[in-house]
Amino acid sequence: MSQIIIGLILVNVLMSIKGFGDAAFFDRYKFQVQRILGGEKLRMISSGFLHVDWMHLGFNMYALYLFGKVVDASFGTVNFLLIYFASLLAGSMYSLYQHKSEPYYSAVGASGAVSGIIFSSIMLYPDMELIMLPIPIPLPGYVFGIGYLVYSIYGMKNQIGNIGHSAHLGGAIGGYAITLLLRPSVISNNTLMIGVMGLIILGLFFFGDKLRLNR
């Protein structure tokens, strides 16, 4: 495991532990629509290093450990960090867009950044086998990726669970876009997968407002 992945995990762990025991610290750096629109833009990044509990933190860090190695080995440290932080910011921006009329909406977690890393690894190796719970059957990466997008859209529209589906979706879009920019040759890995994901993302840009009808 590269030093940069270890470093990101450590920062996430240390900030999350601080947030677990310091409510004022947690409130100061979490994602909150009203505060961000009021000028506290740092929250769009800092919220990605806070978590609500150990399970939330552990799940995200385990995913970063598993998929981060693939992306870092393929792109190198600088581009890995570009994908990570661009996905984190994309997740926050899409959450802000989707919840801009909800001033007290708040969220934390590295899920946006990790979603971008997962999608980047799937685009690099679309035939890798992954499991999408609750279906205990290994699926090709490209099936997982498309299913992940569809489920996130459904979850965001229907407000399923206490999950930041919009951050997951925005992060995945960020990972998709930056990976295409850095390595357009991934299109040849699985042209159909890249095309279907692109169509879903374009649909979000043109029809994303309709996802807020159930709010």
Please give a structural write-up.
- The protein is mostly helical and 215 residues long.
- It has one domain: Rhomboid-like (Rhomboid-like fold, Up-down Bundle).
- Helices cover 68% and strands 5% of the residues.
- The chain is built from ten helices and four strands, in the order ααβααααβαββααα.
- The strands form two sheets. It has a two-stranded antiparallel sheet.
- Strand 3 (129-131) and strand 4 (138-140) form a beta hairpin.
- Helix 1 (3-21) packs antiparallel against helix 5 (54-75), helix 5 (54-75) packs across helix 6 (77-98) and helix 8 (141-158) packs parallel to helix 10.
- The protein is globular.
- The relative contact order is 0.13.
- The model has no long low-confidence stretch (mean pLDDT 85).
Structure in a nutshell:
The chain contains 10 helices and 4 strands, in the order ααβααααβαββααα. The chain is mainly alpha-helical and 215 residues long.
List the helices and strands and how they pair.
Elements: H1 3-21, H2 23-29, E1 31-32, H3 33-37, H4 43-46, H5 54-75, H6 77-98, E2 106-107, H7 111-124, E3 129-131, E4 138-140, H8 141-158, H9 165-182, H10 191-207
Antiparallel strand pairs: 1-2, 3-4
Please name the fourth-level CATH homologous superfamily: Rhomboid-like
Measured distance between first and last alpha carbons: 42 Å
- Please, what is the average pLDDT? 85
How many structurally independent domains? 1
- Proportion of residues in β-strands: under 5%
The helix fraction, in percent, is 55-70%
DSSP, total strands: 4
CATH topology: Rhomboid-like fold
**Alpha-carbon Rg, integer:** 16 Å
Q: Mind summarizing the main beta sheet?
A: 2 strands, antiparallel
CATH class identity? Mainly Alpha
Low-confidence stretches: none
